[in-house]
Every structure is written in C-alpha cells, then in structure tokens.
Amino acid sequence: GLVTLAFGIFAAYVVALPWVGFRIATLAFLVALPTALETPRGLRGWVIVAIVALLGTAGTYYVFEHYLHVLLPRGRWTDF
Predict the structure, then answer these.
(1) DSSP string of 12-79?
(2) Paired strand residues for 21
(3) Cα–Cα distance between 36 and 51 in angstroms, integer?
C-alpha cells in the first residue's frame, strides 16, 4: 500500500512540475511524501518536516540553477 501511495505522490509531482514550477512542486512533494509514509507527531514533527522540505527545495534549486547552470521548470500558472 505504501509503495503505491509513494508512486502516486511521485506521479502527482511529475504532473505538477510544468504547471506550478520546480520550487512549489518540490516543496509540496517533500512535505507530502514523508507525511504520507509516517504522519509527524506533534508540532516538533511538523516543524522538522517543514525545515527539511524548505532546505531540500532551496538546496536543490541553488545547486542546479546557480552551480550546475541547469534550468529547472518554471510554472505555467505561477512563472515561479
């Protein structure tokens, strides 16, 4: 069940990329996947998920855009 759920979340991420852009889709993916696999307990758990998602998105964006010079998808709806 969890494997199917993880594939579904990943498929939604791939579909969302061209519409909302890399930053928003990745942030949502990095919140949705760990939350679906194991729901955070209490405020501390949610803060950890939020921090990991923000740092993961920002770090990946910075490395690919600024260091490797790889253009990441901008959203058609957001241009972000």
Answers:
(1) HHHHHHHHHBHHHHHHHHHHHHHHHHSPPPHHHHHHHHHHHHHHHHHHHHHIIIIIS-PPPPBPTTT-
(2) 74
(3) 17
- Sequence letter at residue 24: I
Could you tell me which residues are beta bridge partners of residue 72?
none
CB-facing half-sphere around the CA of 24: CA atoms within 13 A: 15
Residue 80 has pLDDT above 80, yes or no: no
Model pTM score: 0.90
Q: Write the pLDDT tens digit of every residue in 12-71.
A: 999 999 999 999 999 999 999 999 999 999 999 999 999 999 999 999 999 999 999 999
DSSP string covering 61-73, please? HHIIIIIS-PPPP
CA atoms within 13 A on the CB side of 76: 5
Structural contact between residues 21 and 74, judged by C-beta atoms closer than 8 angstroms: yes
